[in-house]
Design brief:
about 750 residues, alpha/beta, GIY-YIG endonuclease, Arc Repressor Mutant, subunit A, Rossmann fold, seven-stranded parallel sheet, globular
Length: about 750
């Protein structure tokens, strides 16, 4: 009897990830009355000390701790928030990125542990057809028209009917009382793509030879039922999307599911609509730009098995799809795939590991692949697929460099005469143009000409950006803002001057030089959320604008057939940024925005304004020569010991006391260096650089110092980080925080 009771008790012991800063899971006993409701992924409230904390059931306990086991008495939702197939991925991601699993889950899953949402209910009318002419004489004109509409359309929501028949509910109730219609409440899913116009049906496409070859390889990978990673490297407008659409059809035919990741929310809707047109209602989009209710709805639909294709941004990599056969990471080079706060995961790399767990094909797609990705493809870790030609009638655009060094005339400081002339020609022909500048605001810096005072953020070590249309100085990191001053607060001089150019000023300059042009601007100020960006892109595609000025938001994946000119202003801006991959980022931005030109009937033209036209990055962009750029970039990386030749991790300390942060950073770095040096094998493969303050030494009122770890191999890096974690014992006063960023996207 005792053994039976012990077995029953063992069956009620669960491993739980609680939302607390713990690098371990805990074991709890589920109350007997909840035993049948407990499933992997169920959100729960778990006792921890004197408080209750949210958490998730991960599975039956793998070990029984030699302590008193507490009991869970509340499961928060009858629908699990993820399935058992996702648990290994979640464990790996939390472990690899050095983040507490429970806290990671609270950030990944929409709404945290809250229930996945209650479905909206709406009245629906279903017609109970009378015999022809039987009741027509007893109905008024509106009732007759309503009945006829239902007879043709079938069951309809009252909300839809009210568009054609305002205030129709009383009439429907009378019809229901006569037994002519049936009124009932039905659940309604919030559909993110509802009301969107689907792209027009296209005739059956004949794939180009390169496309056909890539499609065949992807289908073979899907059919194999094994992990098959690919790099699909194709010039802009080479038909990469069509290749993975046809591969998706194969996966769906075989009963598998498809996940498509994109770097920007604004890109998810056009791609989502292309998939819905091809595959119907079992396609949805998932991203943080949806309303909380709509996002919860989509997660619930996926959990209930009502969705086979998910198109989404970074966080969609964790969508609970149990039968994945194909994962697409489009624009794989984009830095937006790296989470910037909290759980610092890289969605592209998580997608690769997820594909490995699911025995799925994973295709990384880009016209300008990340250097490390291309290197792995060259080394044979990924199957390399190349689309070297456009499928549109036109060749790649003609790219010209405009040397800005001799152009000192006031009228040419922002937009050169050749670019102004080219814009005028575009307007004359009734075409469109894009102007790219990767800096928003009117001017980058406001300073005093007399004493040199620079207007800086009071919480961050950065200059405030001037926004003329708002008459404010704004910090783009913490949001602090103040009115634009008329005098210097230090010397009271009125000689307050602007330095540098942002998109707001560029837009103003275009309007001054070309007053007849319909000009608009797209950046984080004019489009703070994805929905607004989609609206602007739709208006531009419809021809409501002639010139669109924008930041990197306009460089990615959009198809505008009437754009024949792209201008890049102040192209040097990112080239000398203090990052090891500044050259790579500059090449990618310029090559991507250049690819927006000439995708229709007329050939495109690209004008790049630079003060360093001889630099290898600009020379490679001029000929759109990725291979040439890659060779020179790799030589620089090999010489300096940066990825893909090393693995990086960034340990960053922050706090409100600059001295305390500096002191603790030096202590940890010295102690860690001492420990590593005692292990000869580890010392030969790991370098500890720093500590030092980053370029952004103060952010949101907190001072920052960082230690950079370089390692030849992942194993030595993991060992060093384990030692770092053991060394860290945060002082109570003042409070300091330590974050670890694996494969950091920025060292700034």
């Amino acid at each position: 009897m005792g053994q039976t009771r012990q077995n029953q008790d063992q069956g009620r012991l669960w491993e739980v990830a609680v939302a607390a800063p713990l690098f371990q899971t805990l074991t709890y006993r589920v109350a007997p009355e909840l035993a049948e409701s407990a499933r992997v992924g169920s959100p729960v409230l778990a006792p921890m000390g004197r408080r209750m904390v949210p958490g998730y059931l991960l599975g039956p306990a793998r070990e029984v701790p030699p302590v008193a086991i507490k009991e869970i008495r509340r499961i928060l939702d009858d629908v699990p928030h993820f399935g058992p197939e996702l648990t290994p991925l979640l464990r790996w991601a939390a472990d690899y990125y050095q983040y507490p699993l429970g806290e990671a889950l609270s950030q990944i899953i929409p709404g945290g542990t809250r229930p996945l949402g209650t479905l909206q209910e709406a009245w629906a009318a279903a017609v109970e057809l009378p015999q022809e002419g039987e009741s027509a004489q007893r109905l008024g004109p509106k009732a007759g028209a309503l009945l006829e509409c239902l007879r043709e359309a079938g069951p309809s929501s009252v909300k839809e009917l009210a568009i054609l028949f305002p205030r129709c509910m009383p009439v429907l109730k009378r019809l229901a009382a006569q037994g002519l219609v049936l009124l009932e409440k039905r659940p309604v899913w919030r559909d993110p793509l509802a009301g969107e116009v689907l792209p027009p049906e296209e005739p059956a496409l004949t794939l180009a030879p390169d496309q056909k070859k890539a499609q065949t390889a992807l289908i073979k990978g899907i059919k194999s039922g094994k992990f098959s990673p690919f790099l699909l490297h194709g010039v802009t407008a080479s038909g990469k999307t069509e290749v993975y659409l046809t591969a998706a059809a194969e996966a769906l035919t075989r009963g598998r599911q498809v996940l498509v990741l994109l770097p920007e929310i604004a890109l998810t809707h056009p791609v989502g609509l292309a998939f819905r047109r091809r595959f119907g209602e079992r396609v949805t989009v998932l991203h943080s730009g949806l309303t909380p209710a709509a996002r919860l709805d989509q997660w619930r639909r996926i959990m209930l098995g009502q969705v086979d294709v998910v198109v989404g941004a970074r966080s969609a990599v964790f969508a609970p799809l149990p039968r994945l056969g194909l994962i697409v990471v489009d624009e794989e080079h984009d830095p937006s795939y790296k989470q910037e706060g909290g759980f610092l995961y890289q969605a592209r790399d998580v997608a690769l590991y997820r594909g490995k767990l699911a025995d799925a094909a994973v295709v990384l797609v880009s016209a300008t692949p990340q250097v490390s990705t291309f290197y792995r493809a060259q080394e044979g870790q990924y199957r390399y697929l190349n689309l070297a030609r456009r499928v549109t009638p036109q060749a790649l655009p003609e790219v010209a460099l405009i040397d800005m060094r001799p152009r000192r005339d006031r009228d040419e400081r922002i937009i050169s005469r050749p670019l102004v002339q080219a814009l005028g020609e575009v307007l004359t022909r009734g075409e469109q143009a894009l102007l790219f500048l990767n800096r928003r605001g009117y001017s980058r810096v406001l300073f005093c000409l007399f004493c040199g005072h620079v207007f800086q953020c009071r919480s961050c070590s950065v200059a405030l950006t001037h926004h003329a249309d708002q008459a404010r100085l704004v910090c783009h990191y913490c949001g602090y803002a103040q009115e634009t001053p008329e005098r210097c607060p230090q010397c009271t001089s009125v000689a307050v001057k602007h330095y540098g150019v942002g998109t707001e000023r560029l837009e103003a300059e275009v309007k001054r030089l070309l007053p007849g042009a319909r000009t608009a601007r797209l950046d984080r100020d004019t489009a703070p959320h994805g929905g607004r960006a989609v609206e602007v892109f739709n208006r531009f595609a419809a021809g409501d604008m002639d010139i669109l000025v924008g930041t990197q938001m306009i460089t990615k994946g959009h198809h505008f057939p009437r754009v024949t000119l792209v201008g890049a202003v102040d192209a040097d801006l990112s080239l000398f940024f203090p990052e090891y991959h500044a050259g790579e980022r500059t090449f990618q931005l310029l090559a991507q925005v250049a690819g927006r030109a000439g995708r229709g009937e007329a050939r495109g033209r690209v004008l790049i304004q630079t003060r360093h036209p001889e630099h290898y990055v600009f020379q490679a962009v001029k000929t759109l020569d990725y291979a040439g750029f890659y060779e020179q970039e790799m030589e620089a990386r090999r010489h300096s010991g940066y990825p893909p030749f090393t693995r990086l991790a960034l340990a960053r300390l922050s706090g409100t006391s600059e001295d305390a942060v500096k002191r603790e950073a030096k202590r940890i770095a010295a102690t860690l260096q001492d420990e590593v040096s005692r292990d000869k094998d580890l010392a030969a493969r790991v370098r500890i650089l720093g500590p030092a303050p980053p370029g952004l030494a103060r952010l949101k009122g907190r001072y920052r110092w960082q230690i950079l770890l370089k390692s030849y191999g992942r194993g030595p890096l993991a060992q060093t980080l384990e030692r770092l974690r053991r060394l860290w014992s945060p002082p109570r006063r003042p409070r300091l925080d330590l974050s670890v960023d694996i494969d950091p996207g920025s060292l700034f």
